[in-house]
Amino acid sequence: MSKRALVVDECAVARSVIVILLQRSGWEVVGAADGAEALRLAASWHFDLVITNPEPTKVPGQQLLRILRGGLLSPAVRVILHVEHPEAAGEASLLADEILVKNGQIEKQLQSKLGRLFGGSTSRAAQRAFRKHTSRGKMKCTASRHGS
């Protein structure tokens, strides 16, 4: 049985990169564009992993993580914060198991974090998919963080 992950990010590019990397590593992945959608999904699905940015729209990251950690998800669920800069995680980092920084090394970081949390990794095919869907390994969102 494959593991299931929830990826929460309003930036479609960032979300799709993580989704691709996880899918190519054998994960079943569900994406959410905002915190409210993530809560709806978490209430009706079992997840082994949640990857979210610290400030998704509609439900602030720290509030989202408190709700998820407060009983909506199993205590065994692992949480990775996906941030532009490590200091951007703020207090939400206290509720996460790992921090993933949006940079050119994301596939290596994800592989390492999955290995620590689950004993798994991303494949070479996933790493190629990452490079194909990003510009020089950097995720860029041109839309406003709180836009539609």
Which features characterize this protein?
alpha/beta; disordered C terminus; Rossmann fold; 5 strands; 148 residues; five-stranded parallel sheet
Q: What does it look like?
A:
This protein is 39% helix and 16% strand. The chain is an alpha/beta fold and 148 residues long. It has a single domain, classed as Rossmann fold (3-Layer(aba) Sandwich). The protein has a five-stranded parallel beta sheet, sandwiched between helices. The C terminus is likely disordered.
Number of domain units: 1
Overall pLDDT, averaged? 81
Report the span from N to C terminus.
Answer: 35 Å
- The total count of helices amounts to 5
CATH architecture grouping: 3-Layer(aba) Sandwich
According to DSSP, the number of beta strands is: 5
SSE order and pairing:
Blueprint: E1 4-8, H1 12-24, E2 28-32, H2 35-44, E3 49-52, H3 61-72, E4 78-83, E5 98-101, H4 106-118, H5 124-133
Parallel strand pairs: 1-2, 1-3, 3-4, 4-5
Summarize the structure in short.
The protein has 148 residues and is of the alpha/beta class. It has helices at 12-24, 35-44, 61-72, 106-118, 124-133; strands at 4-8, 28-32, 49-52, 78-83, 98-101.
